[in-house]
Amino acid sequence: MTAGETGMTVGETRITLSYQSQSFETVSSDPPPKKYPQTGACPNKNPLLLSRAMEVVLISPYSDVSAMGLRSLSAVLKKAGHPTRMIFLPYQFPEIEQRSDFITSYSDKILDQVTELCRGAGLIGIGLMTNYFEQVASMTLHLKEALSIPVVWGGIHPTIMPEQCLDYADIVCIGEGEDAILDLVDRLENNRSLEDMPNIWLKKNDTIISNPPRPVIQDLNTIPFNDYDMENHHVLDQATEIISPLNRELLREYLTRSAPTKGRAALFYQTLASRGCPHHCTYCCWDALQRIYPKRQRIRRRSVDNIIEELGIILDRMPWFQEITFSDDSFLDASSTELEEFSRRYKKVAGRSFQCLAEPRTITRKRMDPLVDAGLANIQIGVQSGSKKIQDLYKRNQPNDRVIAMAELLNEYIPRIRPPIYDFILDNPWETLQDKYETLQLLLKLPPPFYVQIFHLTFFPGTELYDLARKDGLISDDIRDVYRQQYNSRDINYINLMYSLFPKPIPRPILRAMCAKPVIKTFQRPIVSGVLDKMYNAYREKVLRKQHKIHNPPVQ
Ligand code: B12
Ligand code: SF4
Asked: Which one of 71, 125, 515, 539 has the fewest beta carbons within 10 angstroms of its own beta carbon?
C-alpha cells in the first residue's frame, strides 16, 4: 500500500511517514515503551503535541456497543495524547442477505460514511471475533480502496488466525492490545520499523513477518478505564443506515438493545473485574490462546479499589445505568475475603443490582452470601452437558452431582436472585442418543425455576475441538462451516426442542414422561426430525422474508 494523506508504505514494513508536513525515514531498534501513563486525566496537555499526535480510528462491528476491548484501547491512546474516533456498527445481518463474495457485507451507503469518518486519521483499528470476519474483510477492502491509511486488525480472531487476516489487513495485532497499539502508533509516527515489534504480524513482499506477543499486562490496575466519552464517538442506526454522533440518548438506546441478558432489556454497564480463566475447555478461546501464551496464565484480577473507582466515576456520570454486568469468564474465581470486600464496597458505591458469569465449582455459600447481599441478581452458569463422556471431551471436570448441589444452593437464594441461567451446548456431532439423554436427565434433576440458554457447538479456529472436527471431516470450508455458524440456533429435532420446555411451568412428571428413553427413541428418529425441521423452516422462512422486506423495502 502506498502513501496518501499520511504518506505511509505499510506493506513493506518500512513506513515512510510524512505526518503533518514532516517526513521521517528512520528505522530504529529502540525497545518499545514499557508503560503508558497511569490512570487519571490525560497527561498530554500541550496543544502543540496534541495537534501533532497521530489520530486513530477504532471501529467496532459488534452488536454490543460496550465493545470493551476497543474502548480500552481508546482510553490508553487518549491518555498518551492521541485523539481517537470510535465508530460502532451494531448491525445485525438478516440471515437471508447475500451480497457479492461476502455473504455479510455492509451497504455502500454505510461504507462510504465509515470512509468519511476515517479520513485524515493516521491509523484505522478494527476489532473482530470469528463471526465478524466477512463483514470486516469487505469493509477493510473498501477502506483500503478509498484511503491510504494503514488498517490494523486485532481481537480474538486475528490473534488466532493472523495469517488469514493479513489477506485483508495491513497489520495484525495478536494478543492484548493496550501496550501494542501505543507502540504501533509511536513507531508509525516516528517512522520506525514494525518488523521486530512484539504482537505484530505483517507482510513484507509476500513473506509474513510474525512476532510473538509481549507478556500479558500483569497489573490490570494500570489500564485506564474504558473510554465512555461521547466526543468523537459515532454509531450506526441499522434502520436508516445513517451513522450519527453518539450522544447520551443514543448510548442508552443502544446499550439497552444489546443487553447481555436478552428478554430483560435493562440498561447494563458492562465491565470486567479480571482477565483470564484457569480452564481450557476444548471449544473455548482460552484453549486457542494457550498456544500463543504457552506459559500457564493465572487469572489476573483488578483490585477492589480499582473496580470501585471505575463504578463510582461511571455511575456519577451516567446514573441511569440500571444494572452492572461483570463479563468475566469466571467472576467468582476469587478468594471469599476478596469477594466480601468487593460486596461491602459495591453496595455503597453502586446501589443497584449486578450480574455475572460463573462456573459451578466456584459457587459456595461463603462466596454467594456477601454477593447476594450486595445485589447479585442474575447468575449465568456453564453446564454444557450431562454426559461424562462429553464433559471429558470438553475437558470440563464438573461431575453432575456437583452441578446439582450447586443448583440446589442457588435455588435457596431465589427470589433474592432471579432464576439462574444454565448454558448448554447442543448439536455436538460426537454425542450419541445416550449422551443427549443423560443431559436431559441432568436438566430434570436441577431444581426449578431456572432458565436454559442453548448454544450450537461451533468449532472456533485454534481450539482442540476445531482440530478434531477437521480430522473427522466435519469441517471442509471454514467460512461456511464455522464463520457463518448461527451460534444461537439449534438443529431441529425432538430432543433439542425439549430445551425450550424446561423454563416453562410444566409439571415435572409430564416433562419426565416426555424425556423418557422410549419416547425419545421414537421421536428422535430422522423421519420425525425431518418433519419438525420442515415445519420449522417454513415458519422461519416466513419470518425472514418479512424481516428482509422491512430491511430492503421495494424501490418505488
Ligand atoms: C462480552 C463478550 C461478548 C459480548 C460483546 C462482545 C464485544 N466485544 O463487545 C456479546 C454478548 C455480544 C458476545 C457475543 C458473542 N460472543 Co463473545 N465474548 C465476550 C467476552 C466475555 C468478553 C469480550 C471482552 O470484552 N473482553 C475483554 C477485552 C479487554 O478483551 P478483547 O475483546 O479480546 O480485546 C483485547 C485484545 O483482543 C485486543 N484487541 C481487541 N480488538 C482490537 C482491535 C485492535 C485494532 C487491536 C490493535 C487490538 C484489539 O486488545 C484488547 C485489549 O487488550 C469474551 C471472552 C473474553 N474473555 O474475552 C467472549 C468471546 C469474545 N465471545 C465469543 C463468542 C464465541 C461469542 C458468540 C459467537 C457466542 C457466544 N457463545 O458467546 C457471540 C457472537 C455474537 C455475534 N455474532 O453477534 C468467543 C470468541 C471466539 C472467537 N474465535 O470468535 C469469546 C472469546 C468467548 C470464548 N471464551 O470463547 N460476546
Ligand atoms: S470455563 Fe468458560 S471461559 Fe473458561 S475455558 Fe471453559 S468455557 Fe472458556
From this structure: 539
